[in-house]
Amino acid sequence: MSTTAVPEVAVTAVDEGFWTRARKSGAVLLALGVLAAVLFGALATDQQARFTLSETEGGAALEINGTVGAILFGIIAAAAGAALLAGVPKRWFTLVLGVGLVGFVLSFLCWQVSAAPEGRNFMPLVNVVRGTFVLALPLIFGALAGVLCERSGVVNVAIEGQLLMGAFSGALFGSISGSVWVGLVAAAIGGAFISLLLAVFAIRYLVDQVVMGIVLNLLAVGITGFLYERLMQTDAQKYNSAPRFSNWEIPLLKDIPLIGPALFRGNIFLYLGLLLVLVIHIALFRTRWGLRTRSVGEHPTAADTLGVKVLRLRYRNVIMAGLVAGVGGASYTLALYSFTKNMIGGKGFIALAALIFGRWSPTGALLAALFFGFADQLATYLGAIGSSIPSQFLAMLPYLATMLAVAGLVGKVRAPAADGKPYIKG
Fold first, then answer.
1. SS (H, E, C) the chain
2. What is the pTM of this model?
3. Same domain for 202 and 66
């Protein structure tokens, strides 16, 4: 039997010219640093900007003169931008960019904290860290749901609907039963119900997955809104007064400065969210299931020839994603709030952005979710200290951060090759 040799094709890197991604980022960062040093430095006051390591004004704190801090951190941001513009080794890009962005944020905070009214010119870092994690929780669960789906080759635009159905189901059944655990299970099932519809229509009937996701989001808004008006509004005590999970304190770890009170005095959703990130990351990159999932998301035909049940695996992973997102929805109604119509408010789409920003990785999705959670918490903090920035701008800050992150910070990313492409077994 003769074999045909396949000629090797030389692949050369595309010449990006002078304006590489790093240099473009450096130019923007340099401009932001100069803006921070000049503008924020001029607007800051000579009052001390205090960053306390507690939940109140008292206790240990990091202090710096507002004007000095705004100028200094602005210069640091500009220096990082200049370094990127001059050209740094590729392996240092993320670190230098991170230093520059942190410098810009700290310059901004020195201005805001020092200019706050007397008695409010401090930032309690414990509250900021805790608030960041609390606000990031639904994003973490939603982004993990996206990882499970899209690594399997199914686009999950229905995260918003899964979160919403989970929040509603948790509130309704938790209220009726009087049990947080019943509410938690019901929330997971509610999210899985939306995922099941996505799986059936996208995998079995080959409906466009993006369109189907949007339709399912509207379906979830319609169902929960209708039942909210018919049940919860008429008798909130019976149908919308679910018990709440209490905080669980972990001995010794809770006493770690700054991190302890924020991370180790949380409720079940905080611990479960961090645990799921670890479990899914290990399962996705260290187990046979993970290898099969990634192969189905990249090249389902090749996976099929090796004996992988492509459609079965996609069904299972999409439904599993709904369970995860449903629990994320319950983090609203079984820990923080009573249910209200459309209470998710676009967080599902931010979770989708976190998935892309995190490059379809559980740990990347976690970091991206924390970034967006910090933006949300920062808007809340600035409103509390009476910032001169208009409240309308503060309200849009999380969404603005989402657009800037996806458009400017991600760079070139590649989704799984078979993502969104139906598989028809030959």
1. CCCCCCCCCCCCCCCCCCCCHHHHHHHHHHHHHHHHHHHHHHHCCCCEEEEECCCCCCCCEEEEEHHHHHHHHHHHHHHHHHHHHHCCCHHHHHHHHHHHHHHHHHHHHHHHHHCCCCCCCEEEHHHHHHHHHHHHHHHHHHHHHHHHHHCCCCCCCCHHHHHHHHHHHHHHHHHHHCCHHHHHHHHHHHHHHHHHHHHHHHHHCCCCHHHHHHHHHHHHHHHHHHHHHHHHCCCHHHHCCCCCCCCEECCCHHHCCCHHHHHCEECHHHHHHHHHHHHHHHHHHHCHHHHHHHHHHHCHHHHHHCCCCHHHHHHHHHHHHHHHHHHHHHHHHCCCCCCCCCCCCCHHHHHHHHHHHCCCCHHHHHHHHHHHHHHHHHHHHHHHCCCCCCHHHHHHHHHHHHHHHHHHHCCCCCCCCCCCCCCCCC
2. 0.89
3. no
